[in-house]
Design brief:
alpha+beta; five-stranded mixed beta sheet; 19 strands; 22% strand; globular
C-alpha cells in the first residue's frame, strides 16, 4: 500500500543507496589514481594498514588462527563494509541536509588521507588518492540528488517519486564507471608489478644435491621442498610493493666506516651462496602451517656488511627497512656468527616472487621471521637496541627469538576417520642450527616409540619422519616430539606465539573404523 510511511522508507533507502554508490565510485577512482602513484595509499588499504598497526597483539594472533592467510581479505572486507555503512548514512543525511551529507562523505575520505600520509615513508603523493575519492564521491552524490530532484517533478505513471528512467540511467552510468575504473586500476597495478625476470648468477658456493623426500612413498607427508607457490606468507602488507629492480638499491649505513649503496647488479656480482633453509613464522601455533623449506640463493650477509666496514662498530642490531618503511631488527651477533645468513635474491631456482620480497630479502636460519626476514629490503642500519626500535620490538615482541625445536603430524589428519590396520603416522620436525636427532610418537598416552627419519638435507632444514602403526578400531590420541643432536627435547610446556614463539607438543585425535 502506498502510504506516507512507505514513501518515506522508500526515499530513505533510495538515498542510502546513492551514498553507497557515490562512495564506490570515489573509491574506484582513488584506487585507479593510487595504482598510478602509490598503491598502498588507496583509501581502504590505508585504513586497513592502520587497523593492523593499532590492533592489539592477542587480537592479531586470534585473526591469524581463525582466518589463516585469508586474514587480510577479511580485514579489507570488514573495512569496506564499515565505510559503505557510513556512506549510506551520509546519503540519508544528504537527502535532508545536503551540505552536511556531502561533508560527511568528504570526511570519510579525509580520514583515509590522514592515515595514508602518516604511514612510514609517506610523501605528498600519498594524499592524492584520498583527495580524488572525496572529490569524485561528493560530486557523484550531488549529481544523484539533482537527478532525483528533477525526476520528482516528473513521476512515471503510477509511481510516486522520481522518474525511474533518469535514476536508472544515472545510477547505471556511475556503476559502470566504478567497474571500469576498478578494473583499470587492477590492470595498472598488475602492469606496474610486471614480471620478476632477472638474470640470476650461478652460485659461487652451490648447495648439495637434494634428496628424494618421503612424500614419494607416504601420501600426506609434507613435501621435502615446499613449492614456491605454496610457501606460506605472513606479513602486515595489504598490497605487494611495486619495486622496479632497475632503480632499486640496498643501502648500508649507521655505525659503519662508510655508507654503501648497492644495486641489484652489484649484489648479483658478489660471492653468492645457495642453501636449503627452513623458515618459520613466529605466529605459527603448535602443529601450524606457517613453516616452509626452500632453496635460497643470495649474498652472505656478512659480506654485504663488510662493504660498509663494521670492524669498529658499537652496534648490536641490524635495523632493516623495506621499500615502504617497515622495520625489522636482527641481532648483529647472530648475523655474523657463521650461520648462512644472506641477502637472498633467488628462491627454488628462480627469482624471488614479489610476495616473498622481490628483488631482495633477508634470510637468517634459526630465527623467526619477525627478527630476521625483512622482505623488499632497501636499507640496513647498524645501530643499538637502546637507540632504535623496530616495528615488532615496539609491540613488545622478543628481540632475540631463536626458532624452538618443533615437530608436526601431517598424516593422519586431526579428527579424520581411517580404516583399521597398517596406518602411517608421519610429519616433519625441525631444530635449526643443530639438526634433528630423533622423533618419537606416542599413542593413547603409552610409551614413546621412535619414528624413522627421512633423508638429511642439512641442520638448517626440516626432517621428515614416519611410523607404521597397527591401528585398532576406536578413538585414539597421537602425539609427537623431537630431540635435537645436542640431546635437547622438544618442550611440552604450552606457550602461545607471543612474545617469542609457541611451544608444546601436538596431539591429535583420530577415529579408526
Amino acid at each position: 500500500m502506498d502510504t506516507p510511511d512507505a514513501r518515506s522508507r522508500s526515499r530513505t533507502l533510495r538515498h542510502a543507496a546513492y551514498g553507497v554508490l557515490a562512495t564506490l565510485v570515489g573509491l574506484a577512482a582513488a584506487h585507479l589514481v593510487a595504482a598510478v602513484t602509490v598503491p598502498a595509499a588507496s583509501p581502504v588499504l590505508a585504513v586497513g594498514s592502520t587497523v593492523i598497526d593499532l590492533t592489539m597483539t592477542p587480537l592479531k594472533e586470534w585473526a591469524i588462527r581463525q582466518f589463516g592467510t585469508a586474514d587480510k581479505l577479511v580485514l579489507v572486507g570488514s573495512v569496506t563494509l564499515v565505510v559503505l555503512v557510513l556512506a549510506a548514512l551520509a546519503g540519508v543525511v544528504a537527502a535532508r541536509l545536503e551540505t552536511v551529507g556531502l561533508l560527511l562523505l568528504v570526511g570519510l575520505a579525509g580520514v583515509a588521507g590522514v592515515l595514508a600520509v602518516l604511514r612510514p615513508g609517506a610523501g605528498p603523493l600519498d594524499l592524492v588518492p584520498a583527495l580524488v575519492a572525496a572529490a569524485v564521491g561528493a560530486t557523484s552524490l550531488w549529481w544523484l540528488h539533482r537527478v532525483d530532484d528533477r525526476g520528482a517533478g516528473e513521476p512515471s505513471p503510477g509511481v510516486d517519486g522520481p522518474s525511474r528512467r533518469g535514476v536508472v540511467l544515472a545510477s547505471g552510468g556511475l556503476a559502470a564507471a566504478a567497474v571500469a575504473m576498478g578494473a583499470l586500476g587492477r590492470w595498472v597495478t598488475s602492469y606496474r608489478l610486471g614480471g620478476t625476470d632477472v638474470a640470476l648468477p650461478a652460485a659461487t658456493d652451490p648447495a648439495s644435491s637434494f634428496p628424494t623426500g618421503l612424500e614419494e612413498r607416504y601420501a600426506g607427508i609434507t613435501p621435502l621442498r615446499t613449492p614456491t607457490a605454496k610457501f606460506y606468507r605472513v606479513d602486515t602488507r595489504l598490497t605487494v610493493p611495486a619495486v622496479d629492480v632497475d632503480s632499486w638499491t640496498l643501502t648500508v649505513d649507521g655505525d659503519v666506516e662508510r655508507e654503501v649503496t648497492l644495486t641489484f647488479d652489484d649484489l648479483a656480482g658478489m660471492r653468492t651462496i645457495e642453501r636449503d633453509i627452513t623458515l618459520t613464522c613466529v605466529s605459527n601455533e603448535v602443529g601450524g602451517p606457517y613453516v616452509g623449506g626452500a632453496r635460497w640463493l643470495g649474498v652472505p650477509l656478512a659480506d654485504v656488511l663488510d662493504r660498509a666496514g663494521i670492524g669498529a662498530t658499537a652496534a648490536d642490531q641490524v635495523l632493516s627497512t623495506d621499500v615502504d618503511g617497515m622495520t625489522i631488527s636482527t641481532p648483529l651477533a647472530v648475523a655474523l656468527d657463521g650461520r648462512d645468513a644472506m641477502i637472498a635474491i633467488g628462491m627454488n631456482g628462480g627469482p624471488l616472487p614479489r610476495e616473498h620480497g622481490f628483488p631482495a630479502r633477508m634470510v637468517v636460519p634459526g630465527l623467526y621471521g619477525f627478527v630476521s626476514a625483512c622482505k623488499w629490503i632497501s636499507r640496513m642500519t647498524l645501530t643499538t637496541y637502546d637507540a632504535e626500535q623496530a616495528y615488532w620490538t615496539e609491540r613488545d615482541w622478543a628481540t632475540d627469538a631463536p626458532i624452538k625445536i618443533s615437530s608436526r603430524i601431517d598424516t593422519p589428519k586431526p579428527l579424520s576417520r581411517t580404516a583399521a590396520g597398517k596406518v602411517v603416522i608421519g610429519g616433519i620436525a625441525w631444530a635449526q642450527g643443530v639438526g634433528i636427532d630423533t622423533v618419537e610418537v606416542r599413542v593413547d598416552g603409552e610409551a614413546w616409540r621412535p619414528a624413522r627419519l627421512g633423508p638429511q638435507v642439512n641442520d638448517d632444514y626440516w626432517r621428515q619422519w614416519y611410523l607404521e602403526w597397527d591401528a585398532e578400531p576406536g578413538q585414539h590420541f597421537i602425539a609427537c616430539r623431537a630431540t635435537n643432536k645436542d640431546g635437547d627435547v622438544q618442550s611440552d610446556v604450552r606457550m602461545t606465539p607471543f612474545p617469542e614463539g609457541s611451544s608444546g607438543l601436538q596431539e591429535i585425535s583420530v577415529s579408526i573404523t
